[in-house]
Each structure stands twice: as structure tokens, then as C-alpha cells.
Design goal:
disordered C terminus; mainly alpha; single chain
Length: 193
């Protein structure tokens, strides 16, 4: 599957609906990115059981959807590790209504925090930068998408993209400071034995 289709929100929404998975595409990738950023290796055998618990009441998914998710895990891991900060969040397109995009962004942030907390339960062990990133991602989850404001549509678009870009950088901070170090040290430990 092409990277473009792999990160197409509508495609994922259709796939998840067809297989009666109650989570959104944003929640799926957010959870994956959170686990990877917390140091869980990009190994489908490790990540899939957690996804089954969160997305499908502990039941395995059919082979087709499982294969797609394995590709999403690999692509998300690849993008997190890229030095050009090319991480794409799996969110609705710019053509979708702002409330829908905001809701998906909030779901992504919430799922990321859950995924991160699966591995990193004690934030006193991480750097102040990571703690700040987690705090700011928590603030994203508190955005009220139903509050009317006086801002123009253009101002709302600009604000949305600023928050989105900031989220990407916060996620990359977590991955670079925790995810990579944990994964690299685990690989080194396995090599020594």
C-alpha cells in the first residue's frame, strides 16, 4: 500500500467501520505513536495485542485489517525516526469541517497519551522536556470544539495548523528523548548477551 493511502483518514475510517472496530483512525495511529514514543519496539507482535485490547475488546482482528495495521506501525515508526521531521498525523483532510478535524486531533492526542503511559508510567524518570510535551499534549485534549468564537475561518485554520504542527514537534520530542533511547538500549542489551 502506498504511503499516501496508508495515511488517508477516510480510507482508515472505511476499513475500521467495515471490521466493526469502534476506534477512529486518529485513535489507532495516536496509540501506535504513543507506544513507539515510549520505547516499545516497532514490532507488530508486541504492539498488536495491546491494540486488540484497546480497539477490539481483546479480540484479534481479521488478517486483512491486521496486515494494514502492521503496515501503519512500520510507517509510523519510520516517520518518527526520520531526521526531517516528516511525521504525518492520521487526521481528516483539510476539506473536512473544522469540528471534525478538531475532534480527531483531540482523539489522536488522547490515544497518544494512553499509548505513552502503557510503557512510561513514571514521568519523574523522563526529562523536563518530555514532561512538558506530555503536559502540552494533555492541554490539546482539553480543547472545546463546540465553543463559538469570534475568529474568522482563516484565523481558525491558522490556529488549527499551528496546534497541529506543535503537536507533531511534541510527539517527536517524546520519541527522540524516550522512544529512541529505550529502543536503542534494548537492542544493545540483546546484542551483548
Amino acid at each position: 500500500m502506498t504511503s499516501q493511502l496508508l495515511l488517508n483518514y477516510d480510507h482508515w475510517t472505511s476499513q475500521l467501520d467495515q471490521h466493526s472496530v469502534m476506534a477512529s483512525a486518529a485513535e489507532l495511529q495516536g496509540l501506535i505513536a504513543g507506544m513507539l514514543s515510549a520505547g516499545i519496539p516497532a514490532d507488530a507482535g508486541t504492539i498488536l495485542p495491546v491494540l486488540y485490547d484497546f480497539l477490539n475488546d481483546g479480540q484479534a482482528l481479521n488478517a486483512h485489517l491486521k496486515g494494514l495495521i502492521e503496515q501503519l506501525i512500520a510507517e509510523t515508526a519510520r516517520q518518527l525516526a526520520e531526521e526531517d521531521y516528516s511525521l504525518q498525523l492520521l487526521l481528516p483532510s483539510d476539506d473536512d469541517a473544522m469540528p471534525e478535524r478538531l475532534e480527531a486531533m483531540i482523539e489522536w492526542a488522547q490515544a497518544f497519551l494512553v499509548g505513552f503511559a502503557i510503557q512510561q508510567t513514571d514521568l519523574s524518570l523522563v526529562s523536563p522536556d518530555v514532561r512538558e510535551a506530555i503536559d502540552q499534549l494533555t492541554e490539546v485534549t482539553r480543547i472545546d470544539i463546540y465553543t463559538e468564537d469570534d475568529a474568522s475561518e482563516a484565523e481558525n485554520e491558522e490556529s488549527y495548523f499551528l496546534v497541529l504542527e506543535h503537536m507533531r514537534l511534541l510527539v517527536l520530542t517524546c520519541f527522540n528523548e524516550v522512544g529512541q533511547k529505550f529502543t536503542i538500549s534494548e537492542v544493545a542489551a540483546k546484542t551483548l548477551h
